[in-house]
Amino acid sequence: MLTLALRLGMTLQDLRSRMSAEELFLWMAYNQESPLSDTRGDIQASIVAASVFQAQGAKVSAVDLMPKWKEEPAVVVDEAAQADEGAELFRAFLMVKANEANNCS
Prior knowledge:
Blueprint: H1 2-8, H2 12-18, H3 21-33, H4 39-55, H5 79-104
């Protein structure tokens, strides 16, 4: 959500108050297809850099040149558990929105 808020020029509070859960899910799906973050630029830069090195005979790949922003966890991610966690977070979000709507009435 932070990346989306940054890209839209909003604060998180603005984003939460002005965006429906449905639209947020659409943005999340869009992010899977076309990342909103600067990751895409990092990938493009590493491809260009690898091409330059390879033209000079270096045995390097674009993956070797990707910046490491943080340590990668050595733990294997359980996709089912991650999906369950996402569903729980969404339910909690909806409950907060429902409570806000009830308090405004």
